[in-house]
């Protein structure tokens, strides 16, 4: 049986499972595979070098699936910012109706561009107060990202078991639970905690269609739940990455008093990360990874993964939970 929630209805998808935006991973190959399997695939806008390239990637994805898919726009607090508005225009021109946003409040200028074109906004937040503020500002769905997540968990360190129901107590619009999800148990837990679907990043990196080197996929399988590391804590821009010699070196360098980003830039820059994903050489840079690595034991296709999650969730609800009723 399928799970029907406000999110499956709003997004027009079969299963309440979304693939989060992923820099250097979120290409048409992965997004279309997730959408074809009944979830929502997402292309990551800034993985494309130019807005024109994003237009082409959207067209490519459309040629690979006739199901809904979205685009992620992450607005970073950087000095050399890309032309976000030109990327947003490419999204509008490409006829995209679902956009996942993340990053600084400046992202709301992008919402204002997109919303008149009927685009639904999924906004990623790591705190209840941010989710409420995004709801007030008019986004459609909150993706609430717990401390377990790959990428930027924020600075509050609240795991999903608390963050999701705490947000559900206050947020009225539908929510995706994100961070640490990878199987049917997680899906049922998310629904129990008040979310109406799950968002996954790391788990989708360990799939056949993820366009990254097999060595990196294998690292996600080999690492257990302790296989991730927080970097940039002292810079108040905490990021969760895979545990490796390089990420440990980043932590070491930033532990020195007065250390700045410049002290680690060569290890963590985007080019180094891209090379790592392409070559599979884990000494080239850092790779994003969440605690959910402890639940990843294979590299299935997206179809196999999503089918398995839904079947497992079904069995938990119908058999395991039903069996506990007195
Ligand atoms: N989130 C963003 O908002 N923008 C990004 O560019 C981005 N890049 C990511 C790259 C990778 C390889 C991974 C694993 C995650 C990335 N994320 C990014 C975070 C995911 O969208 C998602 O929120 C997170 O992975 C959820 O936690 P999980 O990994 O435990 O499933």
Automatic annotation (TrEMBL):
Superkingdom of the organism of origin: Bacteria
Lineage: Bacteria, Pseudomonadati, Pseudomonadota, Alphaproteobacteria, Sphingomonadales
Gene Ontology MF term list: nitronate monooxygenase activity
Presence of the UniProt keyword Oxidoreductase in the record: yes
Name assigned to this protein: Nitronate monooxygenase
CDD domains recorded: NPD_like
UniProt-listed InterPro entries: Aldolase_TIM (IPR013785), NMO (IPR004136)
Record carries keyword Cell inner membrane: no
SUPFAM superfamilies found in the cross-reference section: Inosine monophosphate dehydrogenase (IMPDH)
Keyword annotations from UniProtKB, A to Z: Flavoprotein, FMN, Monooxygenase, Oxidoreductase
């Amino acid at each position: 049986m399928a799970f029907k929630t406000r999110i499956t209805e709003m997004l027009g998808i079969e299963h309440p499972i979304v693939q989060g935006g992923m820099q250097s991973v979120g290409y048409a190959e992965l997004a279309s595979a997730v959408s074809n399997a009944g979830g929502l695939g997402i292309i990551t806008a800034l993985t494309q070098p130019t807005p024109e390239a994003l237009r082409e990637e959207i067209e490519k994805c459309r040629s690979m699936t006739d199901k809904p898919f979205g685009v992620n726009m992450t607005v970073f607090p950087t000095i050399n910012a890309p032309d976000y508005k030109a990327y947003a225009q490419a999204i509008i021109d490409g006829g995209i109706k679902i956009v996942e946003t993340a990053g600084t409040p400046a992202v709301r200028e992008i919402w204002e561009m997109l919303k008149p074109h009927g685009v639904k906004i999924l906004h990623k937040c790591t705190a209840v107060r941010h989710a409420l503020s995004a709801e007030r500002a008019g986004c459609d769905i909150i993706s609430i990202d717990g401390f377990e997540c790959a990428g930027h968990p924020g600075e509050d360190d609240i795991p999903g078991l608390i963050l999701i129901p705490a947000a559900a107590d206050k947020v009225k619009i539908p929510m995706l639970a994100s961070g640490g999800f990878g199987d049917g148990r997680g899906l049922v837990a998310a629904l129990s905690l008040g979310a109406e679907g799950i968002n996954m990043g790391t788990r989708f990196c360990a799939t056949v269609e993820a366009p990254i080197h097999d060595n990196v996929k294998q690292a996600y399988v080999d690492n257990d739940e302790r296989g991730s590391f927080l970097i940039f804590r002292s810079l108040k821009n905490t990021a969760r990455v895979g545990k490796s010699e390089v990420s440990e070196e980043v932590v070491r360098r930033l532990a020195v008093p007065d250390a700045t980003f410049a002290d680690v830039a060569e290890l963590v820059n985007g080019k180094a990360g891209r090379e790592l994903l392409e070559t599979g050489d884990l000494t080239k840079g850092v790779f994003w990874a969440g605690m959910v690595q402890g639940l990843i034991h294979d590299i299935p296709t997206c179809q196999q993964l999503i089918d398995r999650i839904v079947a497992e969730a079904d069995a938990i609800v119908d058999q395991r939970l039903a069996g506990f009723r007195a």
